[in-house]
Amino acid sequence: MVFVKYTILFFIFLLTACIGNLISKKYKNRVDELKTFKEAFNILESKIKFTYEPLGDIFEEISNLSYKNSINSIFMNAKNNMKKLGLKKSWDKAIENNKQNLSLKTEDIDIIKNLGNMLGKTDVEGQLSEIKLNMSFLDTQIAIAEEECMKNEKMYRTMGTIFGLAIIIILI
């Protein structure tokens, strides 16, 4: 009977520690996703600047890179819907369809959605300046996300462990 009790207490501790780690992982994932979007925007900028490829081809090429599946699917969905809906609507729809799979905050998503406003509507220089503007916004969000990650990641891991220990102490 004592063995069963301690086994259950161990699993309770393990569960609360895992929950704390899962919550803390969202902060790290947000930083990684923002950096991935910045890399994708950088590739988009280079392709527009030097190759003059159509945006659909560029989106497909970016979606074939080894990013997270949700980020790849945003670019692929935008490319697939571009002929039916136009660039802005297809970009917004692709982000809306995939945002539940991302760890991004609303302001991050708004910045990423903002890219679709000017792409394909202006000349090359206008598109490049829009991409650079969005990348500078992403730099700000990355700095904020890294600060939040440093502050909150360790706190949630520790809270999960401490909460598990508190439950164990109460139940003993």
Which key terms come to mind for this protein?
172 residues; mainly alpha; 84% helix
User: What structural class do the secondary elements suggest?
Assistant: mainly alpha
How many domains is the backbone divided into?
Answer: 1
What's the shape? Answer: elongated
In terms of quaternary structure, what is this?
Answer: single chain
Spans of at least 5 consecutive residues with low confidence: none
- How far from one another are the termini? 13 Å
Share of helical residues: over 70%
Beta-strand segment tally: 0
Q: What is the helix tally?
A: 6
Largest sheet at a glance?
A: none
Rg of Cα set: 21 Å
Report strand %: under 5%
Nearest-integer average pLDDT: 86
Strand/helix succession: HHHHHH
Secondary-structure blueprint:
Layout: H1 2-50, H2 55-63, H3 69-85, H4 87-98, H5 106-114, H6 124-171
Question: How does this model look, in words?
Answer:
The protein is mostly helical and about 170 residues long. It has one domain (about 1-170). About 85% of the residues lie in helices and about 0% in strands. α5 packs antiparallel against α6 (about 125-170). The longest helix is centred in the N-terminal third of the chain and has 49 residues, at about 1-50. The radius of gyration is 21 Å and the shape is elongated.
Brief overview, please?
With about 170 residues, the protein is mostly helical.
